[in-house]
Write a structure and sequence with these properties.
The protein has about 170 residues and is α+β, with helices and mostly antiparallel strands. Helix content is about 20%, strand content about 25%. The chain is built from 3 helices and 7 strands, in the order βαββαββββα.
Length: about 170
């Protein structure tokens, strides 16, 4: 047995999030099932982080133990991409030291939040709350604590409702 690290990206649109859920499709569930099928061995994944329903990831690192002596890592990558793609894509795979753990060995994590809304919608800001409204004023999404919008200075996200309001008013 050996430890394998996998670098993945995924389109979370069809998933109820990263973490395995018995009642819904998850990224962990699909990837774990495919890896177990290819490795012909039960697989338990450890991820550097998790995502919520509908959230995408790029550069997610996952580790697991498998019988590396029986596995061709390039073939493993190709097989997982065939079984899980295009929703989940393995970008890289490597055997790592037995003490490497995706969650515990991570030295940093970066999260990027982008909120997009369709033409004709508007953002209503109130204190630390934001709501996405359609033309009739119906609320379609509510965001608390942070509103991230592309288009801040230098293309940086606008991380607060105040910054978003200032940006929207500058048009």
């Amino acid at each position: 047995m050996g430890r394998i690290a996998v670098g993945i990206e995924y389109d979370g649109s069809a998933f109820a999030g990263w973490q395995f859920q018995s009642h819904a499709r998850s990224v962990q569930g699909d990837l774990q099932l495919a890896l177990a099928q290819v490795a012909d061995h039960p697989i338990e994944l450890t991820a550097a982080g998790r995502t919520d329903a509908g959230v995408h990831a790029w550069g997610q690192v996952v580790t697991f133990d498998a019988p590396v002596e029986r596995l061709d890592l390039q073939r493993l990558q190709a097989s997982i991409n065939t079984l899980c793609g295009p929703a989940i894509v393995v970008r890289e795979v490597a055997e790592v030291a037995p003490d490497v753990d995706a969650r515990g060995s991570a030295v940093s994590r970066t999260y990027r939040y982008t909120v997009l809304w369709p033409y004709g919608y508007r953002l209503r800001l109130s204190g630390d709350r934001a709501a996405l409204l359609d033309a009739d004023g119906a609320v379609h999404a509510s965001v608390g604590d942070m509103v991230a919008l592309g288009g801040g200075q230098g293309g940086a996200p606008l991380a607060t409702p105040e910054a978003a309001a200032a940006f929207l008013q500058s048009d």
